[in-house]
Amino acid sequence: MKAVILAGGKGSRLATRTNGLPKPLVPVDGKPLLAYHLELLARHGATEVAVLCGYGAEQIEAYCGDGLRWGLKLRCIREQKALGTAGAVIAALGELPEEFFVLYGDTMLNVDLGRMFRAHAASGAKATLFLHPNDHPQDSDLVECDEHGRIRAIHGYPHPEGALLPNQVNAALYVIKRSTLGGFAVPESPLDFAKHVFPELLRKGVHLHGYRSPEYIKDAGTPTRLDRVEADVRSGVVANGSLAVRRPAVFLDRDGTINEEVSYITRPEQLKLLPGAAEGVRRMRAAGYRIVVVTNQPVIARGDCSTAELLSIHDHMEMELSREGAFLDGIYYCPHHPDKGFAGERAELKVECECRKPSDGMIRRAARELNLDLTASWLIGDRTGDIQTAHNCGLRSVLLRTGNGGRDQRYAAAPDYVFDDLLAAARLVASQGAAKER
Question: Exposure pattern of 399-428 as b/e (b: 16+ CB <10 Å)?
Answer without folding.
Answer: bbebbbebeeeebebebeebbebbbbbbee
